[in-house]
Structure prediction request, 103 residues.
Amino acid sequence: MIDGVWALRLGFEILGMARLEGHGQKFPRGQALLEEKQLKFHIERYGSIAHLWSSYAVHSDGKQVARGMNSIQAIKEAGGWRVTSIVIQAESASAPLPKKYLP
Prediction:
């Protein structure tokens, strides 16, 4: 059963499906540090396929500068779960985050 957040490594192999508190990525951007934090997620699984919807917020120097949604599809193979598709869309006035994906 998938009950958590995805973790990736090169080759798009999912290392594990476990809830990760405080999950986030940090990226240097000039003198500022960008940090992406997951807001909420939802996973649906049918047999050997799974789909993860994950909302996120990006912060720079502690201030929120963007939000959006990740759409990730995965398939379970003999060696574990593998990501087959990742689509990311930034939030905009015409595409606000759905309320069910807000904290």
In short: The domain at 5-19+29-92 is CATH 3.10.450.50 (Nuclear Transport Factor 2; Chain: A,).
